[in-house]
Amino acid sequence: MNRRLEHVLLDLAQEHAPELIPADWAQQVDYDRKLRTLARQLADHHILVMMAVLPDKLAQNPQPPIETWLKLYADFYQLLASATFPSGAQLEASLLDALNPAIVTLYGAARPVVQVMAGLLLPYIARRQTELLISEAELRGLMSLILEALAAEDLPYEDHHQLQVDGVSLLRQMLSSPLRLVSLTRFDRPFFYENRRPEQLPELDSLTEDSQPLLPVDERPPTTDTAQKRNIPLMPWLDDNDDEGRSKRPPPVPPLPRR
Question: For the residues of the chain, what is the DSSP string, one character each?
């Protein structure tokens, strides 16, 4: 069972939205469904939970690849939020523990952007990342669906077109990342028109050849089932305006602090 993931999701729900945890949680037999449901419900409370597998060659020095991977999703959030919810472009990220697969949370002030990332972006990247050829038309179609969900059709044509172009560019970079995304959520609406059974969440122990931690033991934060859990901050709370009120790009993701 994915007890590690369950602890992470329950800890987040208990801290931010305890009403999401049903009284009969322990009795629910569809383990995959209840984890996915809780992950999607957390997105309705501004929290995007992401999980990615680092290949063995990167797991020895995980900070740079995690930061590079995370920055793609942070940039995607900022791209959409700055255009559709300018007052909600603030973003905070944390690495929840020091194991592989890495589990990261993004806390975004613009809830609709977090929701479309959970319900459209993540399941798409997880589904297509292992495929070599992805058509430009499909990527534009996904961006159109995302922008439609955010009511971005009211933007001027030039702004809407630039969002499409920049979004597709980020999608391609996400798809080519060496970190393999494992989506905890499924599509909010149909995107692929084919008849296949929904994929189940993989067992965390089966995602890597071994269970080596990403950080040495003396540098790892407490595990998620300890009473005094602390997150590893990956990104400070971002102010999307400079001193003169002009929009600015997010700074690079800072290194993980040593413990």
Answer: --HHHHHHHHHHHHHH-GGGS-TTGGG---HHHHHHHHHHHHHTTTEEEEEEEPPHHHHTS-HHHHHHHHHHHHHHHHHHHHHH-GGG--EEEEE--SSSSEEEEEEES-HHHHHHIIIIIHHHHHHHTT-S---HHHHHHHHHHHHHHTTGGGS-HHHHHHHHHHHHHHHHHHHT-SSEEE-SS--SS--S----PPPPPPPGGGSSSS---SS-GGGPPPPTTSTT---EEEEPPPPSB-TTS-B-PPPPPPPPPP-
Q: What is the pTM of this model?
A: 0.77
Write the pLDDT tens digit of every residue in 98-114. Answer: 788 999 999 999 999 99
The amino acid occupying position 168 is V
pLDDT at 117: 97
Query: When comparing pLDDT for 92 and 253, which is higher?
Result: 92
Query: Which amino acid, 138?
Result: E
Dist. CA 87–CA 213, nearest whole Å: 38
Question: How confident is the prediction for the chain on average, in pLDDT?
Answer: 81
Cα separation, 8 vs 191, in Å, equals: 29
If phi > 0 it is left, if psi is from -120 to 50 it is alpha, else beta; for residue 22 that is: beta
